[in-house]
């Protein structure tokens, strides 16, 4: 067990929430808009980045309240806290010492699945890149650092492209940084996909996906730093015309297929797409059995038939991870029997409250 205590103050619809957690799955249920997802979002903020909704800190404070928000958590033997003062930047404290956000990724791995991710296989590649990078980060915390270096270098290169700078000497150092960081990103992504596929189990009620990293136009399956540098150099004239970098790991995509016919995920039914996504999320948690993991499943049961819902709860109950699920009614969690805690969430006059049933 990793997360044993969660306290919220002025976060979204919660003026206050104190929640003790144990190893059992937790099912949060209540009407739409009652504040269930806000609890999951708060837990997701105990990881690097902007959490499962990708919201800016000032958008996460209670509306109409002239104060920032605070999330406190007992994680193993540590006390973690993340806050955002009014109009200020998000800060992270660990055992009363200010630390970078990236440190949160070393305490526990936070994995989530939201309704917005149901369109993963049919939406633009950007969403699939975010998905695979979030999974990669769970296996390789240093992936965040490589991504930051790459993004910073690419912004500098894009600035030069927009300014129509043509001197090759100005580009080489920046492109070398992009290539080095891009190679690290690619290695991490490939390793994460390999771990993910190895952790899929037969007879779970969910299809096993075959995954492939599509590194982008002009690249082999596993480009190294020299490959990326050479491609950036050869594409410079086209990039100058476009005013931005059109090649590199930031243009990669994720391919997925399943079944005996190797059916592409994008051409599968809505139900099978959801099942594939769930299969990968469960595999991600399963593959991290040597790490503290918390799994957040938002409104995941509503679109599953009875058999798949029961299969999901069976999997969740034996996963080496803490799990928090949300749903609109207690009946959605009947198949858990006594394996899960049930907490009813309600909201009155814009204020959320919780009662364990």
Kindly list the characteristics that best describe this protein.
357 residues, alpha/beta, Rossmann fold, Glutathione S-transferase Yfyf (Class Pi), Chain A, domain 2, 2 domains, six-stranded antiparallel sheet, six-stranded mixed sheet, 15 strands
Cα(first) to Cα(last) distance is 22 Å
CATH topology of the largest domain: Rossmann fold
Main pleated-sheet profile: 6 strands, antiparallel
Q: How many helical elements? A: 9
The proportion of residues in beta strands is: 15-25%
In short:
With 357 residues, this protein is of the alpha/beta class.
Please explain how this structure is put together.
The protein is α/β, with parallel strands linked by helices and 357 residues long. It has two domains: 174 residues, 3-Layer(aba) Sandwich (Rossmann fold); 170 residues, Glutathione S-transferase Yfyf (Class Pi), Chain A, domain 2. The protein contains nine helices and 15 strands. The strands form three sheets. Strands 2-1-4-5-6-7 form a six-stranded antiparallel beta sheet, with helices on one face. Strands 8-12-13-3-14-15 form a six-stranded mixed beta sheet, with helices on both faces. A three-stranded antiparallel beta sheet has the order 9-10-11. A hairpin with a 2-residue loop joins strand 1 and strand 2. Helix 4 packs antiparallel against helix 5, helix 5 crosses helix 6 and helix 5 packs across helix 8. The radius of gyration is 22 Å and the shape is globular. The model has no long low-confidence stretch (mean pLDDT 93).
């Amino acid at each position: 067990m990793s997360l044993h205590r969660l306290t919220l103050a002025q976060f979204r619809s919660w003026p206050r929430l104190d929640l003790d957690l144990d190893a059992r799955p937790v099912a949060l249920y209540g009407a739409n808009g009652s504040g269930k997802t806000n609890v999951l979002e708060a837990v997701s903020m105990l990881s690097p980045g902007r959490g499962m909704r990708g919201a800016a800190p000032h958008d996460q404070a209670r509306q109409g309240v002239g104060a920032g928000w605070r999330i406190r958590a007992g994680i193993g033997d540590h006390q973690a806290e993340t806050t955002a003062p009014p109009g200020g930047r998000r800060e992270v404290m660990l055992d009363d010492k200010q630390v970078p956000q990236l440190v949160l990724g070393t305490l526990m791995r936070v994995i989530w699945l939201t309704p917005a991710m149901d369109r993963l296989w049919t939406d633009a590649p950007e969403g699939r890149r975010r998905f695979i990078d979030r999974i990669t980060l769970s296996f390789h915390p240093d992936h965040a650092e490589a991504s930051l270096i790459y993004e910073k270098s690419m912004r500098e290169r894009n600035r030069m492209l927009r300014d129509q700078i043509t001197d090759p000497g100005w580009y080489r150092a920046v492109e070398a940084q992009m290539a080095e960081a891009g190679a690290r990103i690619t290695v991490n992504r490939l390793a994460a996909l390999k771990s993910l596929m190895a952790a899929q189990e037969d007879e779970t009620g969910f299809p096993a996906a075959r995954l492939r990293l599509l590194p982008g136009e002009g690249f082999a399956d596993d480009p190294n730093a020299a490959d990326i540098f050479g491609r950036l150099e050869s594409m410079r004239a086209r990039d100058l015309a476009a005013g931005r970098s059109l090649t590199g790991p930031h243009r990669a995509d994720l391919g997925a297929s399943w079944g005996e016919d190797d059916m592409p995920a994008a051409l599968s039914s809505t139900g099978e797409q959801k099942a594939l996504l769930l299969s990968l999320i469960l595999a991600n948690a399963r593959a991290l059995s040597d790490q503290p993991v918390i799994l957040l499943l938002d409104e995941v049961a509503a679109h599953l038939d009875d058999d798949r819902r029961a299969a999901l709860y069976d999997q969740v109950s034996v996963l080496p991870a803490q799990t928090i699920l949300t749903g609109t009614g207690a009946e959605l969690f009947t198949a858990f029997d006594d394996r899960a805690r049930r907490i009813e969430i309600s909201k009155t006059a814009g204020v959320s409250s919780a009662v364990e049933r």
